[in-house]
């Protein structure tokens, strides 16, 4: 079953028939052909399989996870594929990443959503752990969903990532997080994440070494 679903997920990807001056990949999601411009010299500007897993879940579970008119933020949006698919499915999306990635992110989001979505998504800078209250005030920012694909990797900002999840997540916010397990750091982060959030694995793809999680705040019932 894993191999069959993985084959279907990966089958959503297609490649150009001819070489262009910009590297791009194509994907079929939410009834649209999506073209993503990439930069192969930057981790944040490449589409990773975890993003495809999350997009596939959003499309095939649109009744269970109805995004129409929902407020969604994607952290570590990278090329913007997840944000684009969420937008095409009816959500109001804020796609965020580091300042050096925003140009390519904005290009991909605009190219694939203009005049195609109920709500035009926005692109915004978010450096994990920095100026969170200033840029995303708790009093006025309420997200129904936080989405993340492959945000945990071998980097020194895992404390800031956890702080960012904590800041953006209200008691009724749902986190959808797809992750590829590569190093022990990932396992340690999951353990720390579970001190703040109830974590449920909703899909698992051993052949890709990717798991898809749903999470909510631990203290939501008390609130």
Q: What is this structure's SSE topology?
A:
Elements: H1 2-10, E1 13-14, E2 24-29, E3 32-37, H2 49-60, E4 71-74, H3 81-88, E5 92-97, H4 102-113, E6 122-125, H5 132-135, E7 145-149, H6 158-168, E8 174-180, H7 184-193, E9 197-205, E10 210-217
Parallel strand pairs: 4-5, 4-7, 5-6, 7-8
Antiparallel strand pairs: 1-2, 2-3, 8-10, 9-10
Helix pairs in contact: 2-3, 3-4
GO biological process, one term: methylation
Pfam families: Methyltransf_16
Protein name: MT21E methyltransferase
CATH fold type:
Rossmann fold
Largest sheet: 7 strands, mixed
Number of strands: 10
User: First CA to last CA: what distance?
Assistant: 39 Å
Instruction: Please write the string of helix (H) and strand (E) elements.
Output: HEEEHEHEHEHEHEHEE
Pfam families: Methyltransf_16 (PF10294)
Organism: Bombycilla garrulus
InterPro entries: Methyltransf_16, SAM-dependent_MTases_sf
GO molecular function: methyltransferase activity
Architecture overview:
This protein is an alpha/beta fold. Helices cover 30% and strands 26% of the residues. It is built from 7 helices and 10 strands. It has a 7-stranded mixed sheet. α2 (49-60) runs parallel beside α3. The termini are far apart. The mean pLDDT is 90.
Compact description:
With 223 residues, the chain is an alpha/beta fold.
Q: Which properties best describe this structure?
A:
single chain, Rossmann fold, 7 helices, 10 strands, 30% helix, globular, methyltransferase
């Amino acid at each position: 079953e894993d191999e069959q679903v993985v084959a279907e997920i990966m089958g959503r990807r297609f490649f150009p028939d001819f070489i262009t001056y910009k590297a791009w990949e194509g994907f079929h999601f939410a009834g649209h052909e999506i073209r993503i411009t990439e930069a192969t010299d930057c981790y944040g500007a490449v589409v990773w399989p975890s993003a495809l897993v999350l997009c596939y879940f959003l499309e095939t579970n649109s009744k269970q996870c109805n995004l129409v008119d929902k407020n969604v933020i994607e952290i570590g949006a990278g090329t913007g594929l997840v944000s684009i698919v969420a937008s095409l499915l009816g959500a109001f999306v804020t796609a965020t990443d580091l300042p050096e990635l925003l140009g390519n992110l904005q290009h991909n989001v605009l190219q694939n959503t203009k005049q195609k979505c109920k709500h035009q998504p926005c692109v915004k800078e978010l450096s994990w752990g920095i100026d969170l209250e200033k840029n995303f005030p708790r009093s006025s920012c309420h997200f129904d969903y936080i989405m993340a694909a492959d945000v945990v990797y071998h980097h020194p900002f895992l404390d800031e990532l956890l702080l960012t999840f904590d800041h953006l997540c209200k008691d009724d916010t749902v986190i959808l997080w797809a992750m590829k397990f590569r190093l022990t750091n990932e396992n340690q982060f999951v353990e720390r994440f579970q001190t703040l959030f109830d974590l449920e694995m909703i899909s698992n793809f051993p052949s890709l070494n990717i798991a898809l999680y749903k999470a909510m705040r631990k203290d939501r019932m008390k609130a």
